[in-house]
Amino acid sequence: MKDTQQSILDRIGNTSLLALRKIVPSSGARIFLKLENENPTGSMKDRMALAMIEAAEADGRLAASGSVVEYTGGSTGVSLSLVCAVKGYPLHIVTSDAFAREKLDHMKILGATLQVIPSDSGRMTEKLTKDMIAAADIIAQDTGAFWTDQMKNRDQLAAYHRMADEIWAQTNGRIDGFVQSVGTAASLRGVAEGLRRYDERIAIVAVEPAESAVLSGGPSGAHKIDGIGAGYVVPLWQRSIADDIERVSTEDATAMAFRLAREEGLFAGTSTGANVIAALRLAERLGPQATIVTVMCDTGMKYLRTFGAKLEENFER
Asked: CA 92, CA 249: separation in Å to the nearest integer?
């Protein structure tokens, strides 16, 4: 019984690294996906949720009798729901109908209370993000709940430093580039910081929705890539983090998510599709000997209704 673990939380992290076999750059470079779908809720956000809660427990911001509140597009909410369920904290989530219904259902099943903010035709916008933040702030003030405040919370960076250690070990230190899409910017920043402690020459590429490319100087807009592209420059973002910023459209990200499923057997969300497109672009720039790592942010099972609707739409055409 040596491998018996104390709780499901012990299964967070130490995910696999897998080389793409068919969706590959013409340059001959290698692209690896960090399979964050292997985490308990199927998302990389399990890492940061656990880190934020445990840091707050350690310094007294979250008492044993306390509760938690957060605003989220879904994956962070599901991950916090898991952590709070295991640890016994009531959780209040502010979310929106702009995000995958599967995620909202998952949060409820894990015991979270949801406040759903209406969106503009199911699209992610700057106004929606800020409306969700304001609602979470009110709940925190009214109830005294600990607000994880993911857009500003630096405690999560430690979780991604550990992810960088995993990537370095799995590649035996042979990594030339890392690519990741930007939501709160914590995963890109944390992994980049961790990798550059090993080798400052590693190229770091940020990915954002083409329809709302605010990090690269474009106007704020609406898009449908879950979990990224808040519509404004988020607090944890630092321009020095990334050597380049790639813009990827919702349409292209969705198409790549379908390709990953059909050609690689990897069923992921649209943010992963965006990551792979950006990784392919970087691979062409770096050349045939390059090794690129990007992230399978979550499982496509979180988007079954969304992808199903897209399939029906294409079939009708």
From this structure: 32
Query: What is the enclosing helix (H) or strand (E) of 146?
Result: strand 146-147
Number of domains in the chain: 2
Instruction: Compute the distance between CA of residue 67 and CA of residue 121 in angstroms, rounded to an integer.
Output: 32
Say how far apart CA 104 and CA 96 lie, in whole Å: 9
Distance CA 93, CA 234 (A): 20
Q: In which domain, by residue range, is 126 found?
A: 45-147
Q: Are β-strands 91-96 and 244-248 bridged in parallel, bridged antiparallel, or unpaired?
A: unpaired
Give the residue from 147, 178, 203 where a domain finishes: 147
> In this structure, is the dihedral angle defined by the CA atoms of residues 156, 196, 192 and 180, taken in order, positive or negative?
negative
* Phi-psi map region of 261: left, alpha, beta (phi>0 left; psi -120 to 50 alpha): alpha
Picking from 147, 177, 212, the residue at the C-terminal end of a domain is 147
Joined tokens for residue 63: 């008492």
Model confidence over 233-253: pLDDT tens digits? 999 999 999 999 999 999 999
Task: Calculate helix-pair angle for 157-170, 186-198, nearest 10 degrees.
Answer: 50
With tokens 């944390």, the residue in question is: 190
Q: Does 224 have pLDDT greater than 50?
A: yes
Rounded to two decimals, what is the model's pTM? 0.92
∠ at Cα 137 (133, 138), nearest 5°? 120
The percent of residues above 90 in pLDDT, for the chain, comes to 83
Average pLDDT, the chain: 93
